[in-house]
Specification:
heterodimer; A: 273 residues; alpha+beta; Uridine Diphospho-n-acetylenolpyruvylglucosamine Reductase, domain 3; Enolase-like, domain 1; five-stranded antiparallel β-sheet; 9 helices; 29% helix; globular; B: 158 residues; Ubiquitin-like (UB roll); DNA polymerase, domain 1; 2 domains; five-stranded mixed β-sheet; 5 strands; binds flavin-adenine dinucleotide; binds FE2/S2 (inorganic) cluster
Chain lengths: 273, 158
């Protein structure tokens, strides 16, 4: 392997300088995505490990997570505080124990593989990402995920979501063959109930042909309804298509999606009755 | 590029390609052959080491990323009481067949018991979720970890 240049910035100013002025240089966070690919296509890698950006804290009305926080750090943070937190539920079974010590939230948001366990929850929580580099400031996770321009010569420094958004009832489903398998797709459901009525809902499937999809059709059928009157079995679902994957055929994923989205919704409703 | 780090308590400085995998550097340059390569993709855990006290797969760590950090391999654990307890438990529970996966499982066991001296079966399964074994069927390994937890109770809780 040819020798790549490595950069070890210790301040955000140094990082910004490297990212905006160098060509073919990309960030290295957990390395779990980078090292499985061909790193020879890059001229250099920027190690983000000396920037002290792995802190997780409640700040004003937000939960703010540094980009270098690993899945393990996030689980440890929520374990005693709030094991109902959507990120806690979704990351608990993501990858394996040693991998969770390496995979970072920043690297996962930037990389966004179809099997990611973090993007569905972050979409549902209407999270925002803070970028530095050629663009500076907070952007919605949806914009960042869909606009490649926002990826050019930028680095994700932190991610945040409103504390009160994570007070709803939630569920995260991973379509996998065995416990250690990465999921073929994930479903994330988050809904809020007031006086027995669903007043808002945020449902996502990640790992589809379009990469991800918000389940608007399903959301519309639950919003405003009394939880006792909702019958997931009789609901029509959004049209969702999958590519064939190592684990499952497109047809099987579709069947699994239909079954599991209804099952997870039913599980949430059961806790409310 | 010159890179310094600590391996099993000893300071090491190497002038080498920083993108090389930690796994290769430990095996080829430092002769630490207890670390194995199974998949090279972060799936099997045969290459597990502790990096700054956290269990990681060394096949997915570039050397540059280990700069200034502390690494513990199975060789560094070998002369400790913790190792003796884990080794005996693995032998007594019959959890070693071909043995290729064993160093990785020993590192995972050590990482678990250091932080959770009294693990439930579910905790054990989670802790070894990054290790694959083609021979034993896992139950004997789970039994060995329970045994190591019990026999080393005082040590893990100290
Ligand atoms: C065997 C295996 C199983 C896995 N299973 C799962 C699973 O079940 N669930 C799951 O959620 N994930 C899983 N993953 C992790 C997932 O596949 C990605 O590897 C991971 O999300 C990437 O995060 P990272 O921190 O390692 O990023 P890196 O590998 O460091 O980087 C990935 C990409 O993002 C860029 N990048 C990194 N950090 C930033 C930043 N801060 N700002 C901008 N760009 C950045 C890099 O330049 C690179 O292009 C698994 C990985 C492996 C190896
Ligand atoms: S060789 Fe590293 S996990 Fe298999
Ligand atoms: S004992 Fe042979 S792979 Fe585990």
């Amino acid at each position: 392997m040819g020798e790549l240049l490595w950069y070890f910035p210790e301040t955000i100013k140094e990082l910004k300088e490297i990212i905006t002025t160098s060509v073919g240089v990309v960030p290295h966070s957990g390395g779990t995505g980078l090292l499985k690919g061909d790193v020879r296509k890059y001229k250099g890698l920027v190690d983000l490990g000396r920037l002290h950006i792995s802190n997780i804290e409640e700040k004003d009305d937000f939960v703010e997570i540094g980009a270098m926080a690993t899945y393990g750090d996030i689980l440890r943070y929520f374990k005693d505080k709030n094991n109902n937190a959507l990120l806690y539920k979704s990351l608990l079974n993501a990858a394996s124990f040693p991998l969770r010590n390496r995979i970072t939230i920043g690297g996962s948001v930037a990389y966004f593989p179809p099997w990611t366990d973090v993007m569905g929850p972050l979409f549902a929580l209407s999270a925002q990402v803070y970028l530095t580099g050629e663009k500076e400031g907070w952007y919605s996770i949806l914009d960042y995920a869909t606009n490649r321009e926002l990826h050019k010569k930028t680095v994700v420094l932190k991610i945040r979501y409103k504390k009160d958004v994570d007070t709803g009832r939630s569920a995260h489903y991973r379509a996998k063959r065995t416990q250690i398998d990465h999921p073929a797709f994930t479903i994330t459901l988050l809904l809020y109930v007031r006086d027995e009525r669903v007043h808002s809902a945020s449902f996502y499937v990640v790992g589809t042909k379009d990469k991800f999809k918000r389940l608007n059709v399903l959301e519309k059928q639950v919003i405003g309804k009394n939880v006792k009157e909702i019958d997931p079995e009789s609901m029509s679902l959004d049209e969702v298509e999958f590519y064939g994957k190592v684990q499952f055929s497109p047809e099987y994923q579709k069947t699994l999606f239909i079954t599991e989205v209804k099952r997870k919704l039913r599980d949430i409703l059961e806790t409310l009755k | 590029m010159k890179i310094d780090f600590i391996v099993n308590g000893k300071k090491v400085e190497l002038d080498t390609n920083p993108t090389r995998r930690l796994l290769d550097v430990l095996r080829e340059d430092l002769g630490l052959l207890g670390i194995k390569e199974g998949c090279g993709e972060g799936e099997c855990g045969a290459c597990a080491v502790l990096l700054d006290d956290k269990l990681v797969h060394s096949c997915l760590v570039p050397l540059a990323n280990a700069r200034g950090k502390e690494i513990l391999t199975i060789e560094g654990l070998k002369n400790t009481e913790a190792y003796r307890i884990i080794q005996d438990a693995f032998l007594d529970a019959g959890s070693v067949q071909c043995g290729f996966c064993t160093p990785g499982f020993v590192m995972s066991t050590y990482a678990l018991l250091k932080n959770n001296p009294d693990p439930k079966e579910e905790d054990i399964k989670k802790a070894i979720s990054g290790n694959l074994c083609r021979c034993t069927g896992y139950q004997m390994i789970i039994d060995a970890i329970k045994l190591a937890a019990k026999r080393g109770e005082k040590l893990w809780k100290a």
